[in-house]
Specification:
alpha+beta; Lipocalin; flat
Length: 224
């Protein structure tokens, strides 16, 4: 075999080994775009969210996990989005341009991490979003709690902030803030607020969440 052929074979083998999700990983979950939205005039979305796992005895659950993005048109195309070892759930925005991941790296912690689409299956994390911190700080201001309460909520592992719903226009998120009954000075079951992607601010303004929720129809309902 010539040196050129050997080199090409090595490159091809390396590419196969490097392809996502990687050796030993098994598909455990797949979320495809909702075609009903496209039928009613919504955008065509090609992104499929896949979750893979493989045995890893040293990890929390004895497994390691990957969230991989795949193409609906070409399932062989895959791009790594996020790796984790405890718990994480990804949700694609209605327009397909954003992904939010509720990352739970350890007990008592949930942090919504926002990713913006750059091209095709490539999404990049918006590191300046700081959704968890902004939601907790807004909660403290809104409810006029003293600074001391914040010391029990802001540290890692002290409070859950999770995304529960995308707005129809993909420009805001409904958040749920909660804190377990652990003897702390404040217990929170479910306190909800809205994160605005366009401003990076948190509020309780439902108008922000409801933007784009009402679309004109073609016909009037019968008057009877």
């Amino acid at each position: 075999m010539s040196k050129v052929a050997t080199l090409l074979l090595c490159i091809f083998a390396g590419a196969c080994l490097a392809a996502e999700p990687g050796a030993g990983y098994e598909l455990i979950q797949q979320t495809k775009p909702e075609d009903q939205s496209e039928f009613f005039g919504g955008p065509h979305i090609d992104t499929v969210i896949e979750v893979y796992s493989k045995p890893a005895p040293e990890k929390f659950f004895g497994k390691s996990f990957k969230i991989v993005l795949s193409s609906l048109a070409d399932p062989s195309r895959k791009e790594l989005l996020f790796e984790y070892e405890r718990a994480a759930v990804a949700s694609l925005s209605p327009d397909g341009k954003w992904i939010v991941i509720n990352d739970r790296p350890f007990r008592g912690e949930c942090n919504p991490r926002l990713f913006k689409k750059e091209a095709d299956l490539k999404f990049t994390e918006a590191n300046n979003a700081n959704i968890r911190k902004k939601a907790i700080e807004f909660f403290l201001r809104y409810n006029k709690y003293p600074k001391k309460i914040g010391e029990h909520m802001l540290p890692a592992g002290a409070c859950f902030v999770e995304s529960v719903l995308w707005a129809d226009d993909s420009k805001s998120l409904l958040l749920r803030l909660s804190k377990g009954q652990t003897g702390e000075p404040l217990w929170i079951d479910s306190w909800r607020c809205v994160y605005d992607l366009t401003t990076g601010k948190v509020s309780t303004d439902l108008d922000v969440l409801n933007r784009g929720a009402i679309q004109p129809g073609k016909y009037l309902a019968p008057a009877n």
